[in-house]
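Input chain follows. Return structure tokens only.
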Amino acid sequence: MTSYSNFALLAILSCVIVIGSIVCGAEARARAFFVFGDSLVDSGNNNYLATTARADAPPYGIDYSPTHRPTGRFSNGYNIPDLISQKIGAESTLPYLSPELRGNKLLVGANFASAGIGILNDTGLQFVNVIRMYRQLEYFKEYQNRVSAIIGSSQTKSLVNQALVLITVGGNDFVNNYFLVPNSARSRQYPLPQYVNYLISEYQKLLQKLYDLGARRVLVTGTGPLGCVPSELAQRGTNGQCAAELQRAAALFNPQLEQMLLQLNRKLGKDVFIAANTGKTHNDFVSNPQQFGFITAKVACCGQGPYNGLGLCTPLSNLCPNRGQYAFWDAFHPSEKANRLIVEEIMSGSKAYMNPMNLSTILALDAITT
């Protein structure tokens, strides 16, 4: 008798990839998409908040199609959620605070992410008014109540259970907390390995709450090469070398995060949480930028000071003419081209990049079980 795994494999192989979307038989209906996290995935929530952590002035958005204007994304163009939406055949999710997010737009999903936040509530305090993780989850519950008023509670439950979820958080807990200032409160409280353990345990609680709120397919990204971003090269690096302690933090955090996700899946008895090793992808083009068509992975396209790594991008900043040749858009954030490379690995990467499976496999499996 053919095993289920063989049947699933045959079914997956019978699916056809059309413009990045997987279709089995009839055209697949786009699923809802929810986004949680920090500035790497914020699509404009902070535009509606009194905070300094915002990207609503030029030249942010210079390559954003079709307007070429700032949107609140910390990018020259599309960010990771936009590109994932394109891959699953959906329109980009709107920021939850956007007044446009109402009616049928709600059924597309929502982006709850907010620049400056971390796993911990005390991360990013300098940005004052941002949507911390506990509040993002409260908004997710509120969102479900709003949708229930439109399509009923049963259909809302199905929409959420069948949705794709992305969460990107953790980097700020190092950059804007532990290492923010010498002898920070958190660094006095914990040696780095113990701080990482604490972050992982707190992250697990957040993910469990996300599951309790109905999330059943969750892409969880690790941190990038924290010590290699232009900001850290400018402030802590020596002779263009990555900042060692921040690199050590990422090297401790990412493997523990992956192990925690696999343990959560074993506890739940199903593959809910998918470890997206975006740090590995980012390290690939930091270590060999030319292989990916970049002229540099050290200097930001937009900024000022050494490596264009001081402060955020402003209308007065240095601005490179060809954004596609730079791995970093500003002092902290990848360029749109780098985001595209990251999403390609999310879609089709091997187990070293996507554990236990990549997004193409998820889409194919879910297409035969729904």
